[in-house]
Write a structure and sequence with these properties.
196 residues; single chain; three-stranded antiparallel β-sheet; mainly alpha; 3 strands
């Protein structure tokens, strides 16, 4: 069954772009963006901040050291004839499998720490007019709010800002323009909706 689009009315592009720019400027203010980043940082800290991540690294690191010692011990036992070569291979395979799991766990913890640092760096760069955090500038779509959130910005600058902040515009049958702003923060999406 085909459904007709309820919004069959056309809208003047220039006026629509102007109102979209105004809505974005109002919704993506520095204050609003800081609030979204603060919310993301709070969520990140709830699941594990830097000190918790460091604590969670301790056990896998210690176990990796133990596995290295066990590997040496098993090789010495085989050399002394206390275990067969097949037994040694079996023990070494078990050690390698456990080591792979621990390495993956440590990599996931490092990814979590990196995500937290990126969110904090992005937040810091918005609240500071100086380039404090290099991570922000490594992002090709990075746009500072004060650089773009003016009507004097060119179309390409506005498009970059829309992309950077996940801006999606919709217009209904009555001509009401809606903006949905999504900050995709390493897996967590922070949303804000505004209308004009």
């Amino acid at each position: 069954m085909l459904l007709e689009c309820p919004n069959r009315k056309s809208h003047e592009a220039f006026a629509l772009e102007y109102h979209a720019g105004l809505l974005f400027e109002e919704s993506a203010s520095e204050e609003t963006l800081l609030a979204l980043y603060d919310q993301a940082i709070e969520q990140q800290n709830g699941s594990g901040n830097a000190s918790r991540i460091a604590e969670r690294r301790t056990a896998p690191c210690e176990r990796l050291s133990t596995l290295a010692a066990l590997r040496d011990k098993f090789q010495r036992q085989e050399a002394k004839g206390l275990m067969t070569l097949d037994e040694l291979r079996e023990r070494l395979t078990e050690i390698e499998e456990e080591k792979a799991g621990l390495t993956a766990e440590l990599a996931a913890l490092e990814d979590e720490a990196t995500a937290a640092r990126r969110i904090e760096a992005a937040r810091g760069s918005i609240s500071s007019y100086t380039p404090v955090h290099a991570e922000w500038y490594e992002d090709p779509d990075a746009v500072m709010p004060w650089e773009v959130l003016t009507h004097g910005a060119g179309p390409e600058d506005r498009r970059r800002a829309y992309r950077r902040y996940g801006a999606r515009f919709e217009i209904d049958g009555e001509g009401e323009l809606t903006l949905k702003l999504d900050l995709n923060l390493d897996g967590g999406i922070m949303s804000l909706t505004g209308t004009r």
